[in-house]
Design goal:
two-stranded antiparallel sheet; about 140 residues; 2 helices; alpha/beta; six-stranded mixed β-sheet
Length: about 140
């Protein structure tokens, strides 16, 4: 799995012009899944991002986790994270997971995140989504299983 995590002050995701998920302070996570990924990968990544200490404390030091600040999470599936751009000018997505497997694992990942975050919202798997966010920092991490 590949996760692009952005610390945000607010974010939302819309499908067909209708907001289907929104959060306040927390994380937007773009989630890419391959056929090699499994439930244990999803569980470990959910736990990892919940424990990351990337929010500032009262002294401005990056020292607090999402749980410490009642952080929320917006999860968006994104198969394009597995794009291979080495050859030519058109990306190949052959490394992206089969949609049935990827949806199942994405839904499991979201359920695992619900154990750790005060609110979890998500986009709609396989749909064309418009994601709006205010990146706080900016603070962006790429995390792989």
């Amino acid at each position: 799995m590949i996760i692009v995590l952005q610390r945000v002050s607010r974010a939302s995701v819309a499908v067909g012009g209708k907001v289907v998920g929104d959060i306040k302070r927390g994380y937007v996570v773009l989630v890419g899944i391959s056929d090699k990924d499994n439930y244990e990968d999803a569980r470990k990544l959910a736990e990892k991002i919940a424990k990351l200490r990337i929010f500032p404390d009262e002294n401005g030091k990056i020292n607090l986790s999402a749980g410490d600040v009642c952080g929320e999470l917006l999860a968006v599936s994104q198969f394009t994270l597995y794009a291979d751009c080495k050859k030519g000018n058109r990306p190949s997505f052959i490394n992206a997971g089969n949609p049935v497997h990827a949806k199942e694992l994405f839904d499991f990942f979201v359920l695992e995140c619900e154990k750790h975050f005060s609110k979890v919202a998500k986009g709609i798997f396989g749909e064309n989504m418009a994601v709006e966010l205010v990146n706080d920092g900016p603070f962006t991490l790429v995390i792989e299983s």
